[in-house]
């Protein structure tokens, strides 16, 4: 089961990665590997995903921001709910149209 990390922990890890990339002029992968080991064995893949998403969220890289992804998810749920309601109304309308007075 994936472990949940606090937003403060993630922010600290991202800050450490950025500092290491700037100070040592190394790649993000090298920085994520080193920071992951320093923070108690966090997977560099996890850290790199956090780092990439943070860059997208701050407009430094192209992609779908976290806020946009949440909005799309919310709209899809809402759309599904409306489709279900419309289907129920269509069936009810057909039923009542076929019932004689």
Automatic annotation (TrEMBL):
Q: Does the keyword Signal apply?
A: no
For this entry, list what GO says about its biological process: DNA transposition
Q: Which Pfam families match?
A: HTH_Tnp_1 (PF01527)
Matching SUPFAM superfamilies: Homeodomain-like
Q: Which domain of life is it from?
A: Bacteria
Ranges in coiled-coil conformation: 65-92
Task: Please provide the record's keywords in A-Z order.
Answer: Coiled coil
Q: Which GO molecular function terms does the record list?
A: DNA binding; transposase activity
Q: Which InterPro entries match?
A: Homeodomain-like_sf, Transposase_8, WH-like_DNA-bd_sf
Tell me what this protein is called: Mobile element protein
């Amino acid at each position: 089961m994936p472990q949940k990390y606090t937003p403060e922990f993630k922010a600290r890890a991202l800050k450490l990665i950025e500092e290491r990339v700037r100070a040592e002029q190394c790649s993000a992968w090298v920085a994520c590997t080193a920071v992951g080991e320093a923070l108690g064995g966090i997977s560099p893949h996890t850290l790199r995903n956090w780092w990439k998403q943070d860059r997208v969220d701050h407009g430094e890289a192209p992609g779908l921001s976290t806020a946009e992804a949440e909005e799309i998810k919310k709209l899809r749920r809402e759309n599904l709910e409306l489709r279900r309601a419309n289907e129920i109304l269509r069936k009810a309308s057909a039923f009542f149209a076929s019932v004689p007075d």
